[in-house]
Amino acid sequence: MATDCVAWLNAIPVEAEDLSDSFVSAEEDNGGLAVSNKNINNEINGNWLLSSSNNIHEARLKAKAKRRLRKNSSRDSGRGDSLSDNGDVVRGNSAAPTSPKSKLLDRKSRLGKGRGLPKKGGAGGKGVWGRSGEVYEPEEVDEKDPNYDEAQENCVYETVVPPLDENDFEKTVTPIVQEYFEHGDTNEVAELLAELNLGPMRSEVPSLAVSLALEAKASHRELTSRLLADLCGPVLSTRDMETSFDKLLTELPDLVLDTPGAPQLVGQFLARAVTDQILSKSYIDGYKGRVDCEYTRAALDRAAVLLKMNMGGLRIDNQWGTGGGQRPVIQLIKEMNLLLKEYILSGDSKEAERCLRDLEVPHFHHEFVYEAIVMVLESKGDKTLKMILQLLKSLSVSSIITVDQMRRGYERVYMDIAEINIDVPRAYFILEQLVDKSFSMGIIDVKLRDLCPCRGRKRFVSEGDGGVVKLESY
After folding, report:
1. Mind listing the pLDDT tens digit for each residue in 82-92?
2. Rounded CA gap, 468 and 277, in Å?
3. 240 to 225, 288, 397, 448: CA distances (angstroms)
4. What is the DSSP letter of 47?
5. Nearest to residue 324, comparing CAs of 293, 375, 274, 360?
6. 183 FRET partner, CA 20 to 30 A, in 134, 151, 336, 442?
7. Where are the alpha helices (DSSP H) in 109-214?
8. Model confidence over 267-295: pLDDT tens digits?
9. Coil, strand or helix: which one is 72?
10. Using only C-alpha atoms, what is the Rg of the chain?
11. Which residues fall within 8 angstroms of residue 338, CB to CB, at 6 or more apart?
């Protein structure tokens, strides 16, 4: 064993401070050669014959050599030098040391054993649910478990939605109806109502929708009538509709406070519901002789009159009209022309404003300005010019027609004046007068006035006429 240690020490030099208490101290006292010879002479058949001090030195040497060998093997993990069975030094393959950070994040085994795979196949660690792609099978119930309950095997777990009370119903359904007035999709409303547990409040849906429509526009009332027709069957029953309209007729005195025309409007909803087969034809007849409220009587009379007119050819299914962007452009242009002709005959600007507002097409008011100016260009006399200017001034002051829509209407006339002039020879001259008066009345600004196109003046003297001045003016 001592021979092995000496051979190892010759291969790897030992620091002086590490062996200060072994051979180095002995050489300082008696000389290195004497000690080595003495050690050789005192070894017989592999047994040491030295004194107890020499045995202590050898034990220390042996212990330090083992510690150093153990330290190097754990640090290099097989990549450093090692001793063979014969005491020869075996040089390991030098490999680049790995960084400490990679050691911390490495999930491979640090003992140098195994195949280098992650621990537990990648399924271990804090917060890990299991290896990827692993599917858990249903766990079998152990009947010998002390917590086993036979009644739980046939249980069916479902999500229970509590029924809506009166306060929650109004807070939940009102936004749905108001949003429907914007998008007009009845299927979306039916899906949202189907997700709610309406319970006894199911019959309150039509009355809530109608009460909201009474304070809204005509287009919203048309959407409400369509909604009631589409909800009857999939979501609501005919009995729910009858109960809801009974409540509306009962609450008419309160509805009149907010909407003075509520009796007539509710009567129109009744007639439309009978036409759409939501209510039975005998529903209105069932109230004969049993009505004391004047508002309820007015609503029923209105519905009865509309149904009789329907039998005579009146279409109740379009009594509310079609609002705004849902109308075709050609229909809007026709209605604007009729509005202008009615205004020229009556001269009632307030009625014209109300009719224009009821069309609900603020984005299309430039067409109204365009048609009004074209009507002036095609008219004869100054009466139409003055009335159109008064109407445009009134609509501009009340902000029914915005500045942008007014400007777009004038610009469209400027672009089409060349084609209009083919049918109306004096179109340029009339347009200049209209633009100047519009600027003086504050309908348009100076920039829009300066953009007015001007036709080149005729030559009053022609070369072939011998200098004779033409009497025909522009």
Report:
1. 444 444 545 54
2. 81
3. 15, 21, 48, 59
4. E
5. 360
6. 336
7. 166-183, 186-195, 204-214
8. 999 988 988 888 888 888 888 878 888 99
9. helix
10. 52
11. none
